[in-house]
């Protein structure tokens, strides 16, 4: 195999959404990547359990025409950490996302908030599923998204299953795959300091941009740029 083919950019991307939302939020990122010639697959995970979401994500990876850059937002970071060991995954991109280690879950990572950290407005579970308080959704999740869209996101929340919140990673893909991380500096769901700590632990290439937890919706440019950087460099790592 020639060096040129070894170092060729990865041209397929799988986008994985987080909790409370679905894959439609990736539209802006999807369109920017498609414009530049990437094959883009958006996983529509049920967010019922980590195992279910990993299974859906692995089917998305399998459907890609070649090796993929696997991208996760928020809880989607847990999903890509668990599913990213798939041999077709060339690199991981975390967008203001959880990057758990072996045996960790969202539940363990959020169990000891630091003084002064914002507290996500998660309501008590109903029938085993979680929602954010609709009246506080925009401020906590999507403060820089245009108001009508932020309201729609709050009103169209996908139920987040407690087994997804508590799903533990078995073998973190970032230990063996090159990783990149975008810190959203105005995030009120995952504190930026926690994002930086997880990025550092994963030895991810880190970049930062001003934005809310929904930066992938409000400002897809830096998100798409980081994904393209990862695609160009994953096979060189």
Features:
Sec-Metab_Biosynth_Hydrolase, 6-stranded parallel β-sheet, alpha/beta, AB_hydrolase_1, 16% strand, Pimeloyl-ACP methyl ester carboxylesterase, disordered N terminus, 8 strands, single chain, 237 residues, globular, Rossmann fold, two-stranded antiparallel ribbon
Structure overview:
- The protein has 237 residues and is an alpha/beta fold.
- The protein has one domain: 3-Layer(aba) Sandwich (Rossmann fold).
- 37% of the residues lie in helices and 16% in strands.
- The protein contains eleven helices and eight strands.
- The strands form two sheets. The chain has a six-stranded parallel sheet with strand order 2-1-3-4-7-8, sandwiched between helices.
- Helix 4 links the parallel strand 3 and strand 4.
- Helix 2 (27-35) packs across helix 11 and helix 6 packs across helix 7.
- The radius of gyration is 16 Å and the shape is globular.
- The two termini are 17 Å apart.
Quick overview:
Residues 13-225 form the AB hydrolase-1 domain. This protein is α/β, with parallel strands linked by helices and 237 residues long. The protein contains eleven helices and eight strands.
Helix/strand layout:
Elements: H1 3-6, E1 12-16, H2 27-35, E2 39-43, H3 50-63, E3 68-73, H4 76-83, E4 89-95, H5 106-109, E5 129-130, H6 134-141, H7 147-155, E6 160-161, H8 162-165, E7 179-184, H9 192-201, E8 205-209, H10 215-218, H11 220-233
Parallel strand pairs: 1-2, 1-3, 3-4, 4-7, 7-8
Antiparallel strand pairs: 5-6
Helix pairs in contact: 2-11, 3-4, 6-7
